[in-house]
Design goal:
mainly alpha, 16 helices, 0% strand, globular
């Protein structure tokens, strides 16, 4: 425990001295998000199964993706990741807004980050390392969605006055809504939102062709929604760095979160909440929960000062890209080592724990060495 407290003290000192302000609550929330895709869900399911014999139906729903319409807790993983990316933009780009950084460096950094995220996304789910063009998926991963959203939000933040940012966010959402619901889809009609028949899928098939991932998830036209999700994160980041009072910051996050939930729910009566196509109502619904989660972590850590419990999440959040890319690799390596040597129940219950522990241990070593991957 003393070692952990020492690490937390060091992290707090670093937070106060590095040029880009960091909040422990933001790193903890990012780590909390990544925890679930580091086999956190599988560990929870295994634990509940061992205790209760089976997972309750309501929890099964929350830990899976709805087939089309609807929204579960598991659906929060991707939009929360984009949202947190947006939170960092007001901090990291402040020097460019104030004219303290060159635009050339900004563009180099922006292009480098977009390219790296795109390549990592293709490695993760685009079969890039198979070196088989017939298996290649050009646009199919969360990291690529982050790249698109980050590109849009960064350019907005640099060139459009802050007072218009909310209007830009809604312009993205409304433009997508109008395109999806009011422009006739060739050979189909107006307002059709079926898995195989909607404007977002039509555009993906038209542009990506045989390099599409073959799922009902859409990417190119949905990029408007990705941009809006990251923009919502920038609004949260602006709240975090603007208010002097921590309680005002907390209540502002709560208020905006509730407003987003209400608007998303109302919008869903005409443009349903569908994560597969990143519908505008889904953006606001997921954004609302993201604001509330940020408020909860801010309340506990920044206001309440309760930090120790969040240390495991901070370790993950400080190297989120490595956590995202590394856990599947470690799982594949363990499966290769284990092979068919052990019963199936070990793969179901023990393997997720091993993946989680090994991945976190590697991240902890990197954290101790102060080696942080910044894409």
């Amino acid at each position: 425990m003393s070692q952990i407290n020492g690490n937390l003290s060091t992290l707090q000192k670093e937070t106060a001295t590095i040029s880009i302000p960091r909040m422990l609550s933001v790193d903890a929330l990012r780590g909390f998000d990544m925890f679930w895709i580091m086999q956190g869900k599988e560990v929870l399911v295994s634990f509940i199964t061992l205790i209760l014999g089976s997972v309750p139906l309501w929890l099964q729903y929350q830990l899976s993706h709805p087939e089309w319409e609807g929204f579960s807790a598991w659906d929060m993983i991707m939009p929360l990741f984009l949202f947190i990316t947006g939170i960092t933009i007001p901090f990291s780009m402040n020097k460019y807004i104030q004219g303290q950084g060159s635009h050339k460096k900004f563009y180099v950094r922006l292009i480098r980050r977009v390219i790296l995220l795109w390549i990592l996304g293709m490695i993760a789910q685009g079969n890039l390392l198979s070196f088989d063009i017939n298996k290649l998926h050009l646009f199919s991963n969360t990291l690529q969605a982050i790249a698109v959203g980050y590109l849009i939000a960064s350019l907005v933040f640099l060139y459009i006055p802050l007072c218009f940012h909310i209007l830009v966010t809604f312009a993205l959402l409304i433009t997508y809504w109008v395109w999806m619901m009011f422009i006739p889809l060739p050979g189909v009609g107006i307002g059709v939102l079926q898995p195989e028949q909607n404007w977002a899928m039509y555009v993906d098939e038209l542009i990506l062709g045989r390099f599409r991932d073959g799922t009902h998830y859409t990417w190119i036209l949905s990029g408007l929604g990705f941009g809006a999700t990251v923009m919502l994160g920038t609004h949260a980041g602006h709240i975090l760095r603007t208010f002097q009072s921590r309680w005002k910051t907390f209540w502002a996050l709560i208020g905006v979160g509730i407003l987003c939930l209400a608007l998303g729910w109302l919008w869903s009566f005409h443009f349903p909440i569908i994560k597969h196509i990143w519908s505008s109502s889904m953006v606001l619904w997921a954004g609302g929960w993201s604001f509330l989660l940020m408020a909860l972590f801010y309340l506990i850590i920044e206001i309440g000062g309760l930090i120790t419990w969040a240390f495991p999440f901070m370790v993950i959040g400080s190297n989120a890209i490595i956590a995202y890319m590394g856990a599947p690799f470690i799982e594949e390596a363990l499966l290769w080592v284990i092979g068919n040597r052990f019963p199936l129940w070990i793969l179901q219950h023990i393997l997720p724990v091993l993946v989680l522990v090994i991945t976190w241990s590697i991240l902890y070593l990197l954290y101790r060495k102060k080696w942080f991957l910044r894409v």
